[in-house]
Amino acid sequence: MNFEKNPDAPFAYLMEVAIEEIERTRSELPAPLRDALSEVAMVLEEFPSPAHEADGIESDQLGLFEGADATDPASPQMPRIVLWLGNLWDMCEAEEDAYREEVRITFLHELGHYLGLDEGDLSERGLE
User: Fold this and answer.
1) CA-CA distance, 42 to 121, in Å (whole number)?
2) If exposure means fewest CB atoms within 10 Å of the residue's CB, which of 9, 26, 31, 125 is most exposed?
3) pTM of the model as a whole
């Protein structure tokens, strides 16, 4: 399937491409970061749920880090990264290469939050 010829790409295909990109990006990380990711749940959804929106998440948000970050290993709350693939696809105007790149950037951005980085730190690293 070619994204450019199918701007209404089905969610299953968006998920397949996102998983490929996340796994490729993960494999390029240094071993300690790859190991740290084993403690983080990865959630891929099409769009934020009404519950997320009720909690203040914007309907067009691309991703979110939830839970305890790596600086608080004693916390019982399981860390998780959520990516909203429909929003990523829409932001990239249904262009596959841009979608892949934005999945990578958003994944790394949320991983940065898990590692304890704030928005300023992430911006300095080009992960805005």
Assistant:
1) 22
2) 31
3) 0.86
